[in-house]
Design brief:
With 335 residues, the chain is an alpha+beta fold. The chain is 67% helix and 11% strand. The strands form two sheets. It has a four-stranded antiparallel sheet with strand order 3-6-5-4, with helices on both faces. It has a two-stranded parallel sheet with strand order 1-2. A hairpin with a 2-residue loop joins strand 4 and strand 5.
């Protein structure tokens, strides 16, 4: 199948614009998604630091004063008078309030938990706690799906900052480790932040950007095709029509020269070829006319020569007859 230059340029333009639009769409998608994730990480980091600071203040100040005042610190503080919640229970209470409002979940996990339920429940928590215990990371995060929702899981180390907290853990009979000191990593504080609404808003922005980009690229494509048609394809098609006329023997046409570039130079050269052909044809016609004149002169001379030859032949015939008469007379005389 033969494709013209217009079809080839259209195919090339379509492929180029498809690649450009595809690259633009992928870039917009990745950049907007990464931006949403960065914002989610920033939110989770700020929230986890804030909760950790409140928890440290609660453990170092409120719990200490409550113990000094003779109050009890227990996880069943609802059932007892003069009792306040443990720091872990305090964190769970905060988690319940945040979860009810924003779907945020807060967990305290440890490799050596007093309550076995606070041990790591998956590889994410286990890896984070192991790295925290080695001091190789100050935070650990992962984007995943929890209960069918897109979330960011962000975890920071739970560091012992209060002697009250250290003494409580070391003195608890259920504690697997009894040599905690100030500054030790006791576990990890994990915060789970839903990002479904943010991702949905990001996808809307992505689609708006893609539609806007498509409109811009389509407009540029139409303008580019119109410009290419005016500057490239139309002059080339005119030159092709002129060349076809030359091939069929029509020397009356001429190539239009609209620009001072390579296409204009090609049109000028085609016109030069046409002019040269005109001159050659005029020369051939002039030579042909001269040859006809010479041929006529040669024909006339031949006719004159032929007439002279005929006259000479007749004279020779007459001389022959006379000679025969003379011969007869000589013969008669001889007899």
């Amino acid at each position: 199948m033969r494709f013209g230059i217009r079809v080839k340029l259209l195919i090339f333009a379509a492929l180029a614009w498809t690649v450009i639009f595809g690259a633009y769409s992928v870039y917009i998608y990745k950049e907007r998604t990464e931006q949403t994730r960065r914002m989610a990480l920033t939110t989770a980091s700020l929230l986890s630091r804030k909760i950790a600071a409140e928890r440290q203040f609660y453990a170092s100040t409120i719990v200490k004063r409550a113990l000094d005042a003779g109050m009890e610190v227990t996880n069943s503080y609802h059932e007892r008078e003069n009792a306040i919640p443990l720091p872990a229970t305090f964190t769970k209470e905060i988690s319940g309030l945040l979860g009810a409002e924003n779907g945020i979940n807060i967990k305290i996990n440890s490799l050596n938990p007093i309550n076995p339920a606070n041990g790591p429940v998956d590889d994410f928590q286990k890896n984070a706690l192991e790295r925290f215990s080695m001091g190789s990371e100050a935070s650990h995060y992962s984007f995943s799906t929890v209960d069918g929702r897109q979330v960011v899981r962000y975890m920071i180390p739970d560091i012992a900052t209060s002697q009250v907290c250290v003494d409580c853990h070391n003195a608890n009979p259920s504690s697997p480790k009894k040599d905690y000191r100030i500054g030790d990593v006791m576990g990890g504080l994990e915060i789970v932040v839903p990002i479904e609404s943010e991702m949905a808003a990001a996808m809307k922005d992505i689609w708006r950007s893609i539609i806007f980009g498509f409109a811009v690229i389509l407009s540029m494509g139409i303008a580019g095709l119109a410009y290419i048609r005016k500057v490239v394809t139309s002059p080339i098609m005119d030159l092709a029509d002129t060349a076809k006329g030359l091939a069929s023997g029509d020397l009356t046409g001429s190539a239009p020269v609209r620009s001072d570039d390579e296409i204009g130079d090609l049109g000028a050269q085609i016109n030069h070829v046409i002019n040269n052909l005109h001159r050659m044809i005029e020369d051939i016609r002039s030579t042909s006319d001269h040859a006809v004149t010479i041929s006529r002169q040669v024909s006339d001379m031949s006719r004159h020569v032929l007439d002279g030859s005929n006259s000479q032949g007749a004279a020779i015939d007459r001389i022959g007859l006379n000679m025969e008469g003379i011969n007869s007379s000589i013969a008669d005389i001889a007899r």
